[in-house]
Amino acid sequence: MAGVAVSTTINGDNFEYLCQPDETLLDVLRDRLGLTGAKEGCGTGDCGACSIILDDRLVCSCLVLGAEAEGRRVETVEGMAHGDRLHPLQQKFLEHAALQCGICTPGFLIAAKDLLAKNPDPTEEEIRFGLAGNLCRCTGYDKIVRAVQDAASVMKGA
Amino acid sequence: MNFDPRYSGRNFTSVGTRPIRPDGVDKVTGRARYGADFNMAGQLVGRVLRSPHAHATIRKIDTSKAEKLPGVKAVITAADLPDLTDGDAAMYDILDNCMARKKALYDGHAVAAVAAVDARIARQALKLIEVDYEVLPHVTDVDEAMKHTAPLLNDAIFTEGLEEKPVKPSNVTKRTQYGHGDIHEGFGQADFVVERSFKTEQTHQGYIEPHACVANVSSDGTADLWVCTQGHFVYRQHCAQLLGMEASKLRVTSSEIGGGFGGKTHVWAEPVALALSRKAGRPVKLVMTRDEVFRASGPTSATSIDVKIGARKDGTITAAEATLRYSCGPYAGMWAEIGAMTAFACYRLENVKTVGYEVLVNRPKTAAYRAPSAPMAAFAVESAIDELAKEIDMDPVEFRIRNAAQEGTRSSYGPVYGPIGIGPTLEAAKNHPHMKAPLGKNQGRGMACGFWFNFGGQTCTDLNIGMDGSVSLAVGTVDVGGSRASLSLVAAEELGIAYEQVKAVVADTSSLGYNDMTDGSRGTFSSSMATISAARNAIKVLRERAAQMWDISVDDVAWEQGHAVAKGEKHGNLGKLSLKEIAAESGKTGGPIAGHSELVADGAGVSFATHICDIEVDPETGATKVLRYTVVQDAGKAVHPTYVEGQYQGGAAQGIGWALNEEYIYGKDGRLQNAGFLDYRIPVCSDLPMIDTQILEIPNPNHPYGVRGVGETSIVPPLAAIANAVSNAAGVRMTHIPMSPPRILAAIEAERAG
């Protein structure tokens, strides 16, 4: 199969790559570009561990083809911190111990960033439904919800 | 030096604080490397061909077409994994589970594997492998499998543990029995007797990270394995034995682990990846799909349990009996036995008897799942306890308090308890505001208790002090949920230095002595004991070096708050030497300063919890909502309380999923119908409320700081607590887990119909 040439923007940087027509964006990120922050938990869009933001829209990168990134903007967990300054969500996830094993954390951070961009002052229920596409098996979600609440209040004050 | 592990009361400086974990930043920035995040130059992609049949004889496997496909570098079958187990039946079962030898024993059983230059070619190659199956009758239900008419999985198995050796083979591999006293006499004294049968369906640990490894076998016979595992030393032993290698020639590095909960204590793909790499002469990366994780890796047992409990009018239990049947998958296990041991462990009983039956079925090999076997037994027993309390017209908490085990009680499984937390967790639950909160229409409250043994095991730890006074702690227990933070706190506590001065890592199998895996809630318990021992050995060296620097006797040097202090009036002018100052001079005083520890961490204190929950049931649909949930559990000593809370909350959430939703659904053809997160639905954020926690600290006398394992007990009470809440809300006793809406609705309608 002939490769597809793709030109795209990832975390603000220009990228060009060749990928197969049937290759997912998740596989491109992980296997071709070395961006392994997004994880494959299911490959069927059920777990959210591969969450990324594509042109301001939260998507599962396992359900997007690598070729579809042509001309678009991709945001992954690797782009959340500015240098050594963590994003408030990253900082609050650490402070609240909102991760145990941490495999779901990149997806939750991206999903929470998208949630707060659209709703800067969510209720607990809005957070719970906003993050319902991301599975965590370790925490019972309690500390994740608290971390997002805390980050929201910090970001409002900023 | 002899290490005294006994508890000695002390005031803590670091232990009990809540610092940020040392591996945290890497995990929130995407830099942490998990099983599938590692790659080697020239690596191939491994894929496994799995049986579509629940039970079939493998007549022949033709791999010739697959081998000819360009890009395919190796194809293996069981013939490439010869039997080197030398009569070790348990290892033979592991080998057969990794790659079916004569029969495929469940839907998903591996039968062949390929390594190719990319995933697409590997997938194509699987399609070219021709397997000639003779499909056999199968059985997936635990009760059906016990019948004499059931298809036999293994005609060489004759039930062990019977008075007379059976003459016919059976799917029941073993009968075990625990207890003491005379239950017939006990039931004779009872004014009330409750007798009920229960069923629980099979669930999966549901870790979000699928199994993943990279294997690299060199032509000189050495090998490296990068893998997500709960126990890299155990993986090394098993892989080395199955592949005929010396253990020291196989270096296993544990990646960050994306959840395990018992499911990553067993090898599946790793020996296959090593065999592929050996044959191809190149590194092989093997990552399971989610479908494979469900079909072929570690589910827990499905169970069928009968319980009978009798009590006097005054609320004293006079006798308790349980018969427990646990599915093991196609290989012998000791799952029912663990259930039989834990079933009545919360109670002080004169007369108790439990019998366990291990049952073979055409399902994946049962693996440990967080306090394995205990939640199902607790579901049955704690449901019957609630029902009995109602019959006696006693408050269910009071009834449990009256019968709770205490220090000195002979447990139902044999040993006599030391200081334990069942009574205190019940008292705390009784006094918790949750217990007094009002309930609305269609809402019910339930509570239940749970027990888990905890485990200690073999542990080896190194503590190395750098010349700048910073401390490297190398442990061999995989960090599944924050233990590097806890162990750094312990090292800081013992040495009298700041938490930030310590950096804990998980060492690979070539860098440290053998460690048992992180199971049995042992990670923090055992490695903290070993860390304390290693730190005390390092302090001995630090004192010797300070004595040398001062030119005085080491007997005159004490270690206080991170400093060597010269004792006695004659040394009054010597002041103090900090760890940093001693370390800076180490090159001149005898070289590097380190403390090592090798020990068997005996005396893991047993653990108890009491949970309370409120559930609302929609009587029209059978749908449920968890309104409020509270966990009370004894931690012995909470080293990092935030991560202890996390263990309580996580176990409760898994228990909630098990109680209300999760189950393996098999078709009549013996194939798994719901091998994905869409149809096997684990709790999502919007399913759950905040999970309140209360940590009790009843010191474990067998640990210097009083620590007990905390990881597993939290999954034991939820099935029963939720069943009691649903039963109270719906007005009908629920006896089948999960309590999915159709099951609840059917129970309500049956009750209405009378």
From TrEMBL, chain A:
Source species of the chain: Mesorhizobium mediterraneum
Gene3D superfamilies according to UniProt: 3.10.20.30, [2Fe-2S]-binding domain
Keyword Iron part of the UniProt annotation: yes
Keyword annotations: 2Fe-2S, Iron, Iron-sulfur, Metal-binding, Oxidoreductase
Domain of life the protein comes from: Bacteria
Lineage of origin: Bacteria, Pseudomonadati, Pseudomonadota, Alphaproteobacteria, Hyphomicrobiales
InterPro entries: 2Fe-2S-bd (IPR002888), 2Fe-2S-bd_dom_sf (IPR036884), 2Fe-2S_ferredoxin-like_sf (IPR036010), 2Fe-2S_ferredoxin-type (IPR001041), 2Fe2S_fd_BS (IPR006058), Beta-grasp_dom_sf (IPR012675), Diverse_Oxidoreductases (IPR051452)
An annotated Gene Ontology molecular function: oxidoreductase activity
Protein name: Ferredoxin
Pfam families assigned to the protein according to its UniProt record, in alphabetical order: Fer2 (PF00111), Fer2_2 (PF01799)
Domain 2Fe-2S ferredoxin-type: 4-80
From TrEMBL, chain B:
GO molecular function terms noted in the UniProt entry: iron ion binding; oxidoreductase activity
Keyword Oxidoreductase found: yes
Entry keywords, A to Z: Molybdenum, Oxidoreductase
Source domain of life: Bacteria
SUPFAM superfamilies: CO dehydrogenase molybdoprotein N-domain-like (SSF54665), Molybdenum cofactor-binding domain (SSF56003)
Aldehyde oxidase/xanthine dehydrogenase a/b hammerhead domain location: 29-137
Annotated InterPro entries: Ald_Oxase/Xan_DH_a/b, Ald_Oxase/Xan_DH_a/b_sf, Ald_Oxase/xanthine_DH-like, AldOxase/xan_DH_MoCoBD1, AldOxase/xan_DH_MoCoBD2, AldOxase/xan_DH_Mopterin-bd_sf
Protein name: Oxidoreductase
